[in-house]
Amino acid sequence: TVGKTITCKAAVAWEAGKDLTIEDIEVEAPKAHEVRIEIYYTGVCHTDAYTLSGKDPEGAFPIVLGHEGAGIVESVGDDVTSVKPGDHVIALYTPECKECKFCKSGKTNLCGKIRATQGKGVMPDGTSRFKCKGKDLLHFMGTSTFSQYTVVADISVVAIKDPAPMDRTCLLGCGITTGYGAAVITANVEEGSNVAVFGAGCVGLSVIQGAVKNKAGKIIVVDTNDKKKEWAEKFGGTDFVNPAKLGDQKIQDKLVEMTDGGCDYTFDCTGNVQVMRAALEACHKGWGQSIIIGVAPAGAEISTRPFQLVTGRQWKGCAFGGVKGRTQLPGLVKDYQDGKLKVDEFITHRQPLAKINDAFHDMHAGDCIRCVVNM
Ligand code: NAD
Ligand code: AHE
Ligand code: ZN
Protein backbone atom coordinates (compact mmCIF):
# COMPACT_ATOMS: atom_id res chain seq x y z
CA THR A 1 0.00 0.00 0.00
CA VAL A 2 1.23 3.45 -0.90
CA GLY A 3 0.24 6.27 1.45
CA LYS A 4 -0.30 9.90 0.61
CA THR A 5 2.22 12.70 0.58
CA ILE A 6 1.62 15.18 3.41
CA THR A 7 2.22 18.91 3.07
CA CYS A 8 3.26 20.54 6.34
CA LYS A 9 5.45 23.23 7.86
CA ALA A 10 9.14 22.68 8.46
CA ALA A 11 12.15 24.82 9.31
CA VAL A 12 14.51 24.51 6.36
CA ALA A 13 18.24 25.26 6.44
CA TRP A 14 18.94 26.36 2.86
CA GLU A 15 22.59 27.19 3.42
CA ALA A 16 25.24 27.24 6.12
CA GLY A 17 25.30 30.20 8.48
CA LYS A 18 21.85 31.49 7.54
CA ASP A 19 18.69 31.54 9.63
CA LEU A 20 16.21 28.72 9.04
CA THR A 21 13.10 29.57 7.05
CA ILE A 22 9.65 28.16 7.68
CA GLU A 23 8.41 26.51 4.51
CA ASP A 24 5.59 24.30 3.32
CA ILE A 25 7.29 21.02 2.49
CA GLU A 26 6.03 17.75 1.05
CA VAL A 27 6.73 14.65 3.10
CA GLU A 28 6.36 11.44 1.13
CA ALA A 29 4.76 8.33 2.60
CA PRO A 30 7.07 5.89 4.39
CA LYS A 31 8.49 3.05 2.28
CA ALA A 32 9.20 -0.46 3.57
CA HIS A 33 10.89 -0.41 6.99
CA GLU A 34 10.16 3.30 7.37
CA VAL A 35 7.95 5.23 9.76
CA ARG A 36 6.27 8.62 9.31
CA ILE A 37 6.03 10.54 12.59
CA GLU A 38 4.03 13.63 13.44
CA ILE A 39 6.54 15.56 15.54
CA TYR A 40 4.92 17.42 18.45
CA TYR A 41 7.97 18.82 20.22
CA THR A 42 11.68 19.09 19.52
CA GLY A 43 14.60 20.39 21.51
CA VAL A 44 17.38 22.41 19.90
CA CYS A 45 20.82 20.95 20.65
CA HIS A 46 24.18 22.61 20.23
CA THR A 47 24.88 20.06 17.48
CA ASP A 48 22.07 21.55 15.33
CA ALA A 49 23.81 24.93 15.59
CA TYR A 50 27.14 23.28 14.83
CA THR A 51 25.90 21.72 11.58
CA LEU A 52 24.04 24.90 10.61
CA SER A 53 27.25 26.89 11.10
CA GLY A 54 28.98 24.90 8.37
CA LYS A 55 31.61 23.39 10.70
CA ASP A 56 30.30 19.82 10.41
CA PRO A 57 32.27 17.87 7.79
CA GLU A 58 29.10 15.85 7.11
CA GLY A 59 26.85 18.91 6.94
CA ALA A 60 25.18 19.46 3.56
CA PHE A 61 22.32 21.70 2.43
CA PRO A 62 19.43 22.23 1.96
CA ILE A 63 18.50 20.16 4.98
CA VAL A 64 15.85 19.71 7.66
CA LEU A 65 17.81 19.75 10.94
CA GLY A 66 16.69 18.61 14.41
CA HIS A 67 17.37 15.38 16.29
CA GLU A 68 15.78 15.77 19.74
CA GLY A 69 12.14 15.07 18.97
CA ALA A 70 9.05 13.32 20.28
CA GLY A 71 5.83 12.66 18.42
CA ILE A 72 3.19 10.16 17.36
CA VAL A 73 3.46 7.62 14.57
CA GLU A 74 1.18 8.70 11.70
CA SER A 75 1.77 5.76 9.34
CA VAL A 76 4.21 2.96 8.69
CA GLY A 77 5.59 1.36 5.54
CA ASP A 78 5.54 -2.35 4.74
CA ASP A 79 7.27 -4.77 7.09
CA VAL A 80 7.33 -2.44 10.06
CA THR A 81 6.60 -4.44 13.21
CA SER A 82 8.19 -2.45 16.05
CA VAL A 83 5.78 0.52 16.07
CA LYS A 84 2.26 1.24 14.79
CA PRO A 85 0.17 4.34 14.01
CA GLY A 86 -0.80 6.11 17.23
CA ASP A 87 2.30 5.05 19.18
CA HIS A 88 4.06 7.79 21.12
CA VAL A 89 7.70 7.74 20.09
CA ILE A 90 11.11 9.34 20.43
CA ALA A 91 13.31 9.59 17.34
CA LEU A 92 16.77 7.99 17.59
CA TYR A 93 19.77 9.46 15.83
CA THR A 94 21.70 6.46 17.12
CA PRO A 95 19.57 3.64 15.71
CA GLU A 96 19.53 0.09 17.03
CA CYS A 97 18.97 -2.72 14.52
CA LYS A 98 19.92 -5.48 17.01
CA GLU A 99 21.44 -7.48 14.13
CA CYS A 100 24.63 -5.81 12.92
CA LYS A 101 28.16 -6.49 14.14
CA PHE A 102 28.02 -3.38 16.33
CA CYS A 103 24.64 -4.14 17.91
CA LYS A 104 25.65 -7.75 18.59
CA SER A 105 29.07 -6.86 20.01
CA GLY A 106 27.79 -5.91 23.45
CA LYS A 107 30.56 -3.30 23.40
CA THR A 108 28.91 -0.25 21.85
CA ASN A 109 25.59 1.44 21.18
CA LEU A 110 26.71 2.54 17.72
CA CYS A 111 24.70 0.69 15.08
CA GLY A 112 26.22 0.20 11.65
CA LYS A 113 23.18 -0.71 9.63
CA ILE A 114 22.25 2.68 8.13
CA ARG A 115 25.15 4.91 9.23
CA ALA A 116 26.49 5.45 5.70
CA THR A 117 23.23 6.77 4.20
CA GLN A 118 22.37 8.66 7.41
CA GLY A 119 25.66 10.54 7.10
CA LYS A 120 24.78 11.48 3.52
CA GLY A 121 21.39 12.86 4.54
CA VAL A 122 19.26 10.26 2.77
CA MET A 123 17.04 7.34 3.72
CA PRO A 124 18.54 3.81 3.61
CA ASP A 125 17.44 3.41 -0.06
CA GLY A 126 19.52 6.46 -0.97
CA THR A 127 16.64 8.89 -1.57
CA SER A 128 14.95 11.71 0.36
CA ARG A 129 11.31 11.84 1.53
CA PHE A 130 11.31 15.67 1.71
CA LYS A 131 10.63 18.14 -1.10
CA CYS A 132 10.30 21.90 -1.12
CA LYS A 133 9.77 24.14 -4.15
CA GLY A 134 10.44 21.14 -6.38
CA LYS A 135 13.82 20.40 -4.75
CA ASP A 136 14.83 17.48 -2.56
CA LEU A 137 15.78 18.39 1.01
CA LEU A 138 18.30 16.32 2.94
CA HIS A 139 17.50 14.43 6.14
CA PHE A 140 19.61 15.07 9.27
CA MET A 141 20.98 12.43 11.64
CA GLY A 142 18.26 10.08 10.44
CA THR A 143 15.66 12.13 12.32
CA SER A 144 14.97 15.68 10.94
CA THR A 145 12.70 16.72 13.79
CA PHE A 146 12.36 20.38 12.70
CA SER A 147 9.42 19.29 10.52
CA GLN A 148 5.79 18.71 11.55
CA TYR A 149 6.09 15.33 9.84
CA THR A 150 9.27 13.35 9.30
CA VAL A 151 10.17 9.92 7.96
CA VAL A 152 12.70 7.74 9.73
CA ALA A 153 13.95 4.17 9.46
CA ASP A 154 12.08 1.76 11.72
CA ILE A 155 15.31 1.13 13.65
CA SER A 156 15.56 4.89 14.34
CA VAL A 157 12.50 5.14 16.55
CA VAL A 158 11.38 3.79 19.91
CA ALA A 159 7.83 3.56 21.24
CA ILE A 160 7.14 4.91 24.72
CA LYS A 161 4.29 2.76 26.01
CA ASP A 162 3.42 4.69 29.20
CA PRO A 163 2.15 8.06 28.07
CA ALA A 164 4.64 10.72 29.15
CA PRO A 165 4.58 14.44 28.36
CA MET A 166 6.25 14.78 24.97
CA ASP A 167 7.07 18.44 25.57
CA ARG A 168 9.64 17.18 28.09
CA THR A 169 10.56 13.67 26.97
CA CYS A 170 11.77 15.06 23.63
CA LEU A 171 14.93 16.04 25.52
CA LEU A 172 15.65 12.37 26.13
CA GLY A 173 16.24 12.17 22.37
CA CYS A 174 19.68 13.70 22.86
CA GLY A 175 21.04 16.07 25.51
CA ILE A 176 19.89 14.50 28.77
CA THR A 177 20.45 10.90 27.69
CA THR A 178 23.87 11.76 26.27
CA GLY A 179 25.28 13.23 29.48
CA TYR A 180 23.57 10.83 31.85
CA GLY A 181 24.58 7.79 29.80
CA ALA A 182 28.18 9.03 29.50
CA ALA A 183 28.45 8.99 33.31
CA VAL A 184 26.38 5.90 34.09
CA ILE A 185 27.10 3.65 31.09
CA THR A 186 30.26 4.77 29.27
CA ALA A 187 32.33 5.75 32.33
CA ASN A 188 30.25 3.81 34.86
CA VAL A 189 31.48 6.20 37.55
CA GLU A 190 32.19 4.37 40.81
CA GLU A 191 30.98 5.33 44.26
CA GLY A 192 33.28 7.88 45.87
CA SER A 193 35.22 8.67 42.70
CA ASN A 194 36.13 12.25 41.82
CA VAL A 195 34.64 13.67 38.65
CA ALA A 196 35.24 16.84 36.64
CA VAL A 197 32.69 18.06 34.10
CA PHE A 198 33.84 20.63 31.54
CA GLY A 199 30.90 22.65 30.19
CA ALA A 200 27.62 22.95 32.10
CA GLY A 201 25.10 22.99 29.26
CA CYS A 202 22.36 20.38 28.96
CA VAL A 203 24.94 17.66 28.34
CA GLY A 204 27.29 18.61 31.19
CA LEU A 205 24.45 19.05 33.70
CA SER A 206 23.24 15.58 32.73
CA VAL A 207 26.71 14.16 33.36
CA ILE A 208 26.43 15.66 36.85
CA GLN A 209 23.06 13.97 37.24
CA GLY A 210 24.59 10.61 36.28
CA ALA A 211 27.56 11.12 38.60
CA VAL A 212 25.18 11.89 41.48
CA LYS A 213 23.15 8.76 40.68
CA ASN A 214 26.36 6.68 40.88
CA LYS A 215 27.33 8.35 44.18
CA ALA A 216 30.48 10.08 42.97
CA GLY A 217 32.64 11.91 45.53
CA LYS A 218 33.65 15.35 44.29
CA ILE A 219 31.82 16.59 41.19
CA ILE A 220 33.82 19.59 40.01
CA VAL A 221 32.14 21.67 37.34
CA VAL A 222 34.31 23.78 35.04
CA ASP A 223 32.70 26.51 32.95
CA THR A 224 33.83 29.88 31.62
CA ASN A 225 30.34 31.28 32.29
CA ASP A 226 29.93 32.16 36.00
CA LYS A 227 26.15 31.92 35.65
CA LYS A 228 26.60 28.15 35.39
CA LYS A 229 27.73 27.88 39.05
CA GLU A 230 24.16 28.02 40.30
CA TRP A 231 23.07 25.52 37.66
CA ALA A 232 25.86 23.14 38.58
CA GLU A 233 24.87 23.28 42.26
CA LYS A 234 21.22 22.68 41.44
CA PHE A 235 22.14 19.39 39.75
CA GLY A 236 24.52 18.24 42.49
CA GLY A 237 27.92 19.66 41.54
CA THR A 238 30.07 19.97 44.67
CA ASP A 239 32.60 22.54 43.38
CA PHE A 240 32.71 25.11 40.57
CA VAL A 241 35.78 26.52 38.84
CA ASN A 242 35.88 29.25 36.19
CA PRO A 243 39.10 28.44 34.27
CA ALA A 244 39.34 32.01 32.99
CA LYS A 245 39.86 33.23 36.54
CA LEU A 246 42.85 31.11 37.55
CA GLY A 247 45.55 33.59 36.60
CA ASP A 248 48.64 31.69 35.49
CA GLN A 249 47.49 28.32 36.78
CA LYS A 250 46.25 25.81 34.20
CA ILE A 251 42.85 24.27 34.85
CA GLN A 252 44.33 20.75 34.76
CA ASP A 253 46.80 21.68 37.52
CA LYS A 254 44.02 23.21 39.60
CA LEU A 255 41.96 20.02 39.33
CA VAL A 256 44.92 17.77 40.16
CA GLU A 257 45.48 19.92 43.25
CA MET A 258 41.81 19.74 44.28
CA THR A 259 41.68 15.94 43.99
CA ASP A 260 44.97 14.78 45.51
CA GLY A 261 46.55 13.73 42.22
CA GLY A 262 43.80 13.94 39.63
CA CYS A 263 40.24 13.03 38.80
CA ASP A 264 39.00 9.49 38.34
CA TYR A 265 36.71 10.59 35.52
CA THR A 266 36.54 13.77 33.44
CA PHE A 267 34.06 14.69 30.72
CA ASP A 268 34.37 17.16 27.88
CA CYS A 269 30.97 18.70 27.18
CA THR A 270 32.26 21.72 25.24
CA GLY A 271 33.55 20.45 21.88
CA ASN A 272 36.72 22.56 22.34
CA VAL A 273 39.90 20.56 21.66
CA GLN A 274 42.01 22.58 24.13
CA VAL A 275 39.43 21.73 26.79
CA MET A 276 39.66 18.06 25.76
CA ARG A 277 43.40 18.17 26.39
CA ALA A 278 42.94 19.77 29.80
CA ALA A 279 40.30 17.16 30.67
CA LEU A 280 42.68 14.31 29.84
CA GLU A 281 45.56 15.89 31.74
CA ALA A 282 43.32 16.46 34.79
CA CYS A 283 42.95 12.67 35.13
CA HIS A 284 44.65 10.69 37.87
CA LYS A 285 47.85 8.90 36.89
CA GLY A 286 47.42 5.16 36.46
CA TRP A 287 43.67 4.99 35.92
CA GLY A 288 41.92 8.30 35.24
CA GLN A 289 39.56 8.24 32.26
CA SER A 290 38.50 11.19 30.15
CA ILE A 291 35.33 10.88 28.11
CA ILE A 292 34.90 13.10 25.05
CA ILE A 293 31.29 14.03 24.37
CA GLY A 294 31.67 17.44 22.71
CA VAL A 295 31.67 17.64 18.94
CA ALA A 296 34.58 19.55 17.39
CA PRO A 297 34.66 21.49 14.10
CA ALA A 298 36.08 20.04 10.88
CA GLY A 299 39.87 20.07 10.97
CA ALA A 300 40.20 20.31 14.76
CA GLU A 301 42.42 17.65 16.36
CA ILE A 302 43.25 16.64 19.91
CA SER A 303 46.78 16.38 21.24
CA THR A 304 48.67 15.68 24.43
CA ARG A 305 52.04 14.15 25.30
CA PRO A 306 51.86 10.38 24.74
CA PHE A 307 53.42 10.12 28.22
CA GLN A 308 49.98 11.04 29.57
CA LEU A 309 48.65 7.73 28.22
CA VAL A 310 51.83 5.78 28.94
CA THR A 311 51.24 6.68 32.54
CA GLY A 312 47.77 5.20 32.54
CA ARG A 313 45.32 7.93 31.67
CA GLN A 314 42.71 6.86 29.14
CA TRP A 315 40.88 8.76 26.42
CA LYS A 316 37.39 7.55 25.49
CA GLY A 317 34.32 8.98 23.84
CA CYS A 318 30.69 8.22 23.24
CA ALA A 319 27.66 9.16 21.18
CA PHE A 320 24.21 9.29 22.80
CA GLY A 321 25.92 8.41 26.09
CA GLY A 322 26.47 4.82 25.02
CA VAL A 323 22.71 4.26 25.41
CA LYS A 324 20.98 1.71 23.16
CA GLY A 325 17.87 3.62 22.15
CA ARG A 326 15.31 0.89 21.54
CA THR A 327 16.44 -1.25 24.46
CA GLN A 328 17.23 1.36 27.09
CA LEU A 329 15.40 4.62 26.39
CA PRO A 330 11.96 3.47 27.67
CA GLY A 331 13.68 2.78 31.01
CA LEU A 332 14.94 6.36 31.19
CA VAL A 333 11.44 7.67 30.46
CA LYS A 334 10.18 5.48 33.32
CA ASP A 335 12.90 6.85 35.61
CA TYR A 336 11.69 10.35 34.73
CA GLN A 337 8.08 9.42 35.48
CA ASP A 338 9.14 7.85 38.78
CA GLY A 339 10.90 11.07 39.79
CA LYS A 340 14.36 9.50 39.56
CA LEU A 341 15.59 11.48 36.54
CA LYS A 342 15.43 15.26 36.19
CA VAL A 343 14.07 16.46 32.85
CA ASP A 344 11.74 19.45 33.45
CA GLU A 345 14.59 21.34 35.13
CA PHE A 346 16.51 21.60 31.83
CA ILE A 347 13.80 23.55 30.03
CA THR A 348 14.53 27.26 30.26
CA HIS A 349 12.93 28.45 27.03
CA ARG A 350 10.01 27.55 24.78
CA GLN A 351 9.25 28.77 21.28
CA PRO A 352 6.67 27.99 18.59
CA LEU A 353 8.00 26.62 15.28
CA ALA A 354 7.55 30.06 13.66
CA LYS A 355 10.19 31.42 16.06
CA ILE A 356 12.68 28.57 15.89
CA ASN A 357 15.50 30.96 15.00
CA ASP A 358 14.99 32.59 18.39
CA ALA A 359 15.73 29.19 19.93
CA PHE A 360 19.15 29.27 18.24
CA HIS A 361 19.73 32.85 19.40
CA ASP A 362 18.66 31.92 22.96
CA MET A 363 21.21 29.11 22.94
CA HIS A 364 24.04 31.46 22.01
CA ALA A 365 23.03 34.02 24.65
CA GLY A 366 24.43 31.74 27.38
CA ASP A 367 21.42 31.72 29.69
CA CYS A 368 19.60 28.88 27.99
CA ILE A 369 19.92 25.24 28.94
CA ARG A 370 17.32 23.89 26.54
CA CYS A 371 14.68 25.51 24.38
CA VAL A 372 11.77 23.24 23.44
CA VAL A 373 10.04 24.06 20.16
CA ASN A 374 6.31 23.43 19.91
CA MET A 375 5.74 22.15 16.39
P1 NAD B 1 25.89 24.10 25.44
O1 NAD B 1 26.36 25.14 24.52
O2 NAD B 1 24.54 24.24 26.06
O3 NAD B 1 26.94 23.94 26.65
C1 NAD B 1 28.31 24.12 26.52
C2 NAD B 1 28.87 24.75 27.82
O4 NAD B 1 30.30 24.77 27.72
C3 NAD B 1 28.40 26.18 28.08
O5 NAD B 1 27.92 26.29 29.41
C4 NAD B 1 29.69 27.00 27.91
O6 NAD B 1 29.72 28.16 28.74
C5 NAD B 1 30.76 25.99 28.27
N1 NAD B 1 32.09 26.29 27.74
C6 NAD B 1 32.41 26.78 26.50
N2 NAD B 1 33.74 26.91 26.38
C7 NAD B 1 34.28 26.47 27.53
C8 NAD B 1 35.62 26.34 28.01
N3 NAD B 1 36.67 26.70 27.26
N4 NAD B 1 35.81 25.82 29.25
C9 NAD B 1 34.75 25.48 30.02
N5 NAD B 1 33.47 25.59 29.62
C10 NAD B 1 33.24 26.08 28.40
O7 NAD B 1 25.97 22.72 24.64
P2 NAD B 1 25.30 21.28 24.89
O8 NAD B 1 24.04 21.21 24.12
O9 NAD B 1 25.30 20.95 26.33
O10 NAD B 1 26.36 20.35 24.12
C11 NAD B 1 27.70 20.26 24.57
C12 NAD B 1 28.58 19.65 23.51
O11 NAD B 1 28.24 18.27 23.34
C13 NAD B 1 28.45 20.26 22.11
O12 NAD B 1 29.72 20.22 21.50
C14 NAD B 1 27.50 19.31 21.40
O13 NAD B 1 27.64 19.38 20.01
C15 NAD B 1 27.97 18.00 21.99
N6 NAD B 1 27.01 16.88 21.99
C16 NAD B 1 27.51 15.63 21.76
C17 NAD B 1 26.69 14.52 21.83
C18 NAD B 1 27.24 13.15 21.64
O14 NAD B 1 26.44 12.22 21.48
N7 NAD B 1 28.53 12.93 21.64
C19 NAD B 1 25.34 14.70 22.12
C20 NAD B 1 24.86 15.99 22.38
C21 NAD B 1 25.69 17.07 22.31
N1 AHE C 1 29.14 14.68 11.75
C1 AHE C 1 30.24 15.05 12.61
C2 AHE C 1 30.18 14.42 13.96
C3 AHE C 1 28.92 14.73 14.71
C4 AHE C 1 28.81 13.78 15.87
O1 AHE C 1 29.79 13.31 16.42
N2 AHE C 1 27.59 13.49 16.25
C5 AHE C 1 27.34 12.65 17.40
C6 AHE C 1 26.06 13.02 17.97
S1 AHE C 1 25.98 14.69 18.51
C7 AHE C 1 24.41 14.82 19.09
O2 AHE C 1 24.17 16.07 19.50
C8 AHE C 1 27.27 11.18 16.99
O3 AHE C 1 26.25 10.53 17.08
N3 AHE C 1 28.38 10.66 16.57
C9 AHE C 1 28.48 9.29 16.14
C10 AHE C 1 28.11 9.15 14.70
O4 AHE C 1 28.07 8.04 14.21
O5 AHE C 1 27.86 10.20 14.04
C11 AHE C 1 31.57 14.78 11.95
O6 AHE C 1 32.60 15.14 12.53
O7 AHE C 1 31.56 14.22 10.84
ZN1 ZN D 1 22.27 16.64 20.21
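Residues 45, 47, 67-68, 174-175 surround zinc ion (ligand 3) (CB under 6 Å).
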